[in-house]
Amino acid sequence: MPVVFLQLLVFVLLARHYYGPIGNVLLAGIMIFACLKTAIGLVTSCAETFVDIFPNRISYKSYAIGFTVISFGLSNFGLTAILAYSLPALLFLYPITITFIIMVLLGDLFKHDKTVYQSTIIFTIIGAFMDIFSNPSYTFMHTSFTDALINLYTKLPLYFVGFAWVIFTCIGLIIGLIIKGGRR
Predict the structure, then answer these.
(1) Which of 18, 84, 114, 148 has its CA 20 to 30 A from that of 69?
(2) Quick one: which of 29, 28, 35 has its CA closest to 12?
(3) How far is the C-alpha of 184 from the C-alpha of 179, rounded, in Å?
(4) pLDDT single digits (tens) 96-136
(5) pTM for the predicted model, two decimal places
């Protein structure tokens, strides 16, 4: 049974227990408004971003309507299909984003050296690709070489909690710091 279903079931049971029959209506209302608020925020921020990136081309209103229509169309595929298609992108982008944010926050320690950033992100990208390829749901690009790499990757510490890419990130950071230190 998927974890999300169990979480929702717990919410439903708690709402019914504490608020009686009106609890389910209250929970539904909270869910609707929470999702609606998030959807409106995403549509408006995307529309503003595209107006900033492409000024004097398409109006904010047109972007907002377009993103709303596209989102509505995509939502009809269902959550399972959306997650199945977005998972490779998320597996790739999350490690890079997390690494970049941490690097920016800790950048004063290495004087925001470009080489340290580049080395760390390049190795994080390698780890992110390995996350995608090691996912059993994706059977593309499997050769004896990639299967051997995936086999090694799945043996890394932190693999079973989804953080094996951190090892690649640390290797990239160390290499970047060594290169930076050698240029003094």
Answers:
(1) 84
(2) 28
(3) 9
(4) 999 999 999 999 999 999 999 999 999 999 999 888 888 77
(5) 0.67
